[in-house]
Design brief:
Largest sheet: 6 strands, parallel
Distance between the termini: 50 Å
Structural class: alpha/beta
Mean pLDDT: 89
Radius of gyration: 17 Å
Low-confidence stretches: 1-7
Strand content: 5-15%
Shape: globular
Length: about 200
Amino acid sequence: MTPRRPRSFADVDHPRFAVCSYSTPHNSIYDDVEQASAVGASAVGIWEGKMAQGEDDRLLEHMATHGIATSTAVPERHSVLGIPFDLPDTPTDPGERTDLICRSIERLAKFSPSAIAVAPGTSGDADHPAGPYEALVPNLRTIAEVAEANDMLIGFELLAARRGCPVNTLPDMAAMIDEVGSSHIGIMFDIFHSWP
């Protein structure tokens, strides 16, 4: 009998830790699930960039077989303003990027993550932050609306000033989220990005 996958990471009642598939670039998503299960993890933070089109049901079954839930999910293109290591064919327009993020939210919702990570963006240059800054609020509002329609939460990820992120402090992020005005978006605090 195939074990049932917990609805979400929040439903796991034993010691909880997860492995983020974004941090294991040489693994397949299936390797991530198997290795997480082997070391006693409860969940995997899935990255859409590892997920082949048309294989979502297979991945869900693989996760259920190994007793692995989804902690967080990261869209393949997850920043509104772009990042230096975007692939060459990735759109640079914030509206086009938002459309990609919204399609990813609709896909990732079936994995029941605790949150879907979305980042402001970075330029790679602290002296010249990514922009246009004024594109963030309206596009985040669109993302939050799609998240609400899919019963998902968005984790707006804190990125460092040293990396050229235009909104890089907790108070600034909180103010931006207040301006967006949705209960479906909150701050995702990543220790790696927490130092200037």
